[in-house]
Amino acid sequence: MKNIDLAESSDEGLERVLGLRSAILFVVGSVIGSGIFLTTGGMAAVIPSASLILTAWVLGGVLAVTGALTYAEMGAMFPRSGGVYIFLKEAYGPLVAFLYGWAALFVVLSGGLAAVGVGFATYLSYFFPLLGSISIAGISGTQLVAAAMIAVLGAINYVGVRSGNLVNVVTTTAKVSALAALPIMALVAARVQPVYSPVVPPALVHPQTAFGVAMIAVLWTYEAWYFVTYASGEIKDPHRNIPRALVAGILILMTIYVLVNVAYLHALTIDEMKGTTRIAEQAATALIGPAGATFIALTVVVSTFGNNGAALLAGSRLLFAMASDGVFFPAARRIHPRYRTPHIAIVALTIWSAVLALSGTYEQLFTYVMFASILFSVAAGGALFRLRSTMPERPRPYRTWGYPVVPAVFILGSLAFVANTLVERPTQSLLGLGLVALGLPAYWYWARLR
Predict the structure, then answer these.
(1) Nearest alpha-carbon partner for 250 in 23, 79, 53
(2) d(CA 225, CA 229)
(3) Which pLDDT belongs to residue 434?
(4) pLDDT value for 129
């Protein structure tokens, strides 16, 4: 009887209205923003090998799958809003969880919303060139449009999880369909025959280091696959649907990413790809002419809009979870009596993200704190081992397949990424840890009030 009640309602006051299909699309929509349209050109400059490029995208997907299988067990154990924040709190206590939430809300989520919003505005200016020349009080038209886009999505999410989910379903379906068109274009009008050997070009002096640098871009593009766990309080039958959504969503993402990169390799030579920022635009133009650029620009506009909608829905639930635990402003835990949404949390995250978009400071903050974000991913992977030890009798509707090997692979892969980031960007990494440490006084303040 308890499981039946849980499937129908949430003890947090939220409504469980998202089914499995919506949850899968949430995973996909949270991840696909602008990265897949921009990343491969930079990778080709570092690892000029078709085989290595495809290998990097496959490995990125495999690492994300190991993370999904790891998080799936904890998501089924604790089907409450907050996701990784809840996992860390149950495993290590409230301080570690708060610092994670602090970094996520202060920079990672809000900075990501700002960055994607600017990407949306940049591609929108393709259709409305005047946007690029407007400036008001030193704020560019691009920044104004980014802030306005975030505000619109905040309003949509404010009036109900169904409306926010509808935006995600429509935009995710549209952008997946558009991305699927690229391999079809390449199949029909391929202009290049990729060369897959030798795997490592003779001119590549330090292949391991170069491959590690390329993997940074790949892992950023897969980032946010776990956002669905933030909205666990609104997913139907979470014990079953959260694990299924995580695994199915990432497998779909990996398939899309690999096929799109195969299309790039059939549209452009490696030399043409090197250093190309808008690689999807250039590939589509090479395959079908100038209409390809318009097609990609429209796809990125839709993709970034939907991506931010999913991120805002997820982030506001994290803020709601922290307020419910008494480590954030109490107002953020309020549920709207009519719309059944954490409306104050939505407004707060919308305003802060818009401020970052208008200020232009999100880029520096985002770069600094991502190192700490991956450290928290390592801690979240380790949480599974700790919870197996400290809560052996806790019901586990889903148990991680391949335990302990699969979560160990996820932890080791994340640690390798942390080490590589520390070596390549030591100053930013240490500053990121400093930004996280700034959350300590805030935690002590709310802990005293609690």
Answers:
(1) 23
(2) 9
(3) 87
(4) 87
CA dist., res. 124 & res. 358, Å (int) = 17
CB 38 within 8 A of CB 279: yes
CA distances from 402 to 36, 65, 67, 101 (A): 30, 12, 12, 29
Give the other-Cβ count within 10 Å of 134's Cβ.
Answer: 15
What whole-number distance in Å separates Cα of residue 53 and Cα of residue 194? 12
- The amino acid that residue 399 corresponds to is R
**3-class SS of residue 136:** strand
Alpha-helical segments (H) within 391-449? 405-424, 426-437, 439-449
Q: How many whole angstroms separate alpha carbon 65 and alpha carbon 406?
A: 9
The answer to whether residues 413 and 63 touch, using CB atoms and an 8 Å cutoff, is: yes
3-state helix, strand, coil split of the chain in percent (to 5) is: 75, 0, 20
Alpha carbon of residue 411 to chain centroid: 18
Q: What are phi and psi of 438, to 5 degrees?
A: -65, -15
- pLDDT at 11 (0 to 100): 54
Distant-in-sequence, close-in-space partners of 388: CB < 8 Å, separation ≥ 6: 403
Report the candidate in 68, 52, 391 with the shortest Cα–Cα distance to residue 218. Answer: 52
Q: How far apart are CA 218 and CA 220, in angstroms?
A: 5
DSSP one-letter code for 125:
T
> Largest alpha-carbon pair distance within the chain?
66
Q: Considering Cα of 66, then 68, then 69, then 70, what sign does the dihedral take?
A: positive
Domains of the chain: 2-449 (1.20.1740.10)
Residues of the chain with pLDDT under 50: 1-9
CB atoms within 10 A of CB 422: 14
Which two three-digit tokens encode residue 279?
A: 């690689």
Q: Angle 35-46/291-324 helices, nearest 10 degrees?
A: 110
Q: What is the pLDDT of residues 96-148, one digit of tens each?
A: 999 999 998 888 889 889 989 988 998 898 898 888 788 888 888 899 999 99
Q: What is the pTM of this model?
A: 0.91
Element (H, E) at 140: strand 139-140
pLDDT of residue 450: 73
